[in-house]
């Protein structure tokens, strides 16, 4: 059956169903039911077949022949057409089903008491209603997921409304006496609630939870406890499923009314499912703990089930009220005894003790002190006995963590005397490493007693060595060893071991032997051993009984795994780190004991060496130099082979003897040089690398601009190597020396900052010149002339060459070997016309750039490539600037003769140049580079390559010009300086220059729709955010200096939405994309309309190409990198968005504004809503950060709170409210709690939102005035924390502050109980005074 036949078939079946229903009374009972059931089943089968339908291709030869030519062009589009047709057919067919009057009218007709016209008897009517409702419900279950996927749920909206009405009607009529089984209405509700409107469903669940208690619970058949009734189970199931879906969709379903109803249910019945749901809700929304009654905590404590105690732990972590209630519960002796006797409470005790370390001004501190004192008396001795006994695997971690927290909070040295004396003996045992968590806590407690602390340190060091020895002997297989725990002990050993006297000789020797035996491939052990050798072998007195360094070196090099580790050349991170650690150990041993140097080691070291600038190779080169310094003759290694070639040569030499013809030739040496690494070495030559160490110390070379130093050869090895193979008595293939870029690397060494490197390079060139004169090959004369030109152009001895000229000579030398290339003729023409190179100019730039030959494009590209690769330092820039090269490039780029490819090349040259600070100043001030960039971007035809190149240029230009100035700038636009630093010392760029940068950035932002990649978006957003921050700092400085400044250029809504849309499309965030697209279509934003379709098409092409090429592994790495970049992008995006503000005309009401004004006003309102929603969501997801929160609050106060209509829209969005409350909760309850100033700032904003919303309780003014009184400074912080409980409860939707008042009552009760005790601190007195004042005003 074809796709087009399905709608006809479905309509025919519906016609039969309609006729059957109309004549249902004429049938007898069984035939009528069977006939209707058969028709409904047929309809259901057809719908199922339609949804799973797949178009089959025709097998007719004639059809195949007719389509043979078109398949080539339609193979991508044809499946899309079939898919599109299928979607249309499915929507049409399901629309005809669910819009059919018969099905619409009879669905839940009996439950709604809304029967269509009929002549049926009551019994037949019930049978017809029941069967039709059941079958229609089955159809809805099958079709709803497909309609949801196709975004056509409106076809079944009438059925959803019927389900809702039927359920509400049943609650009204039978709410007080629920049935024992689900009715048809609630069966439909449980099956279809996921497709109902969330606000209606939320209201329905609230109605369920507000039913009388006897309607939600019923007596249990198995015991005295009550259990959930049918309605209770329905409410819980809907909450569980919808809450999980809302968490995934960044929405919130659980309200304050739901939590209140769940709390009542939890107090009334025993339901594991209820405990599990509450645990899930608190885990995903921790701020919900503030909305749960403290009686729930007591109920969970009495039940003592795992889920119940987990709920208690979350309540303690996130609510001050629950912490106070728990502390008052612990004060009862019976409860404290239960805590100490039951192991199930151990995780709970651990949680409380961790939370007790945070300051909580909202409750009396005296209560916590007494509880900690009682816990110390009841638990500390038992904890100590368990720790010094056999720790169980299931509770060992919680026990040690709880003991550490208890010792830190309430114990003194005398309380832990037993642990101090006996714990080192148990630390030696490798069975349970958790005990080591107590070491730092005990060390802190002994800080006042220097002698005891020193004794404790020595005992821990001895225990660490013995524990590691035992662990090594116990877990001989390194892959199965507890490496993380051993690593922690090794780090502690490095910190605590101060001298050789701290450990016994036998323990040290055993540690070294067993470590080398069983942990030879563990980099942590090898690094620790290297560092400890400095301590243990520092003085000659204690070295006699220790393992001699020569023996240690022998043990290291004769190990069975030595060769496999040292010769490993893989790039895996773990293996590379092990090799590096082993080389460091060998270097340390050789430096401390030079007598271990043996010529036989040299072969292995050369085999392990890679001649690169990687850390391990640099250390191996240092090791080879140590052998040279200690009188080891290397005469037979003058032609050095390295890597695997050294091993092969050694095998051959050992087998056949040291005959002359078996010596390695220069060709063998040059063959080891990899072309790609040599090219990279030429282009990224390490100019700061020194061949002879300064001050006797050898430093490792590093360069942040190079991603992987292992891709560069080390000139400190290559130059002596070239010198050795270019000796007069050696034979060398000069052509190969040039073709393998050896000459190029040598010439690049002439640009080194180290005079010794340059001297070595000049020596190598002199030797090569002698060999070149006697050589015979075709390109000999051109190379000789090139070297003569270079020699004639050098004015003084050991002259430093500009980097760009060194690159030029290197490229020309390669070009001399390719006579078939056009550049061969052009370059030879120049060399033959000049006797020497002018070191003050780029050779023949103007002739090559403005060439008029047929191959002028090749010449222009060649010289631009030279500039791009050669301008790397100030010397090269000055040389180009002296020739006015940059003015030429800028002028030519603006001419019609410049195509897009050349323009991108010119931009890359400029990007390379602006790494030099002087170039930034000259190009921006004298050449108008920023205005030129705007001109480039404002072209009508602009490609992604051009936009990406301009973004790179802007990023480099801005941060080079900024230099060190940003370090003096605060994050939120204010300089750090007015108070911390004199104004004259604060340096900012000139405001006009900053404004130019901003204009360029905003011009680029309009072209982000061209599809920039994640890396370019990250650079652009980072640059734009930095420009805006620095502009704020400059405005602040100018304002303080009373300078006249123009009003700053604001960001527009379109520019801001473009950035958000670009980020969302690269992140594949469908929710944000849909919201931006809807907003752009609503307001007819041309710049954003239609972008979604373009991106979907390009994504499809990219996916097809990737699948065809089979590069899935590379794509997965790229995707991971892009995700990381886009995650970091959110920080920079937020720093941009805080500088956008809505422009609203507040002088006139919206209705009085003209049409255009009203559109702009509504656009600003909608944009604010979207940015607020996005900012809150990522702030909550990314973990609490005070600086980012403060930036957002500053923007919220400026952009949102001032505008009533925006606030009204935000307060109607449940997702915004939930995220705002979560951020508010994190500000007060996060482990890294915010400062008092941030808490005050946030509280002021929340109070304004609360007052703008209205519906405040009568005590609002009393509570706010009591908590925010300025009369007593000691009441400030407690008042803020107390007020946060009140704000959170009211903004969550509560009409009264019952939970807040219950907390106030608890504080007052605890205060009165201790009035006759010891004096309270100022904060304790303050919290009590605030609560007493509120209670008095209430009464």
TrEMBL record:
InterPro entries: ARM-type_fold, URB1, URB1_C
Gene Ontology terms: cellular component: nucleolus
GO biological process, one term: maturation of LSU-rRNA from tricistronic rRNA transcript (SSU-rRNA, 5.8S rRNA, LSU-rRNA)
All residue ranges annotated as the URB1 C-terminal domain in the record: 743-932
Lineage: superkingdom: Eukaryota
Protein name per the record: URB1 C-terminal domain-containing protein
Biological source species: Poecilia formosa (Amazon molly)
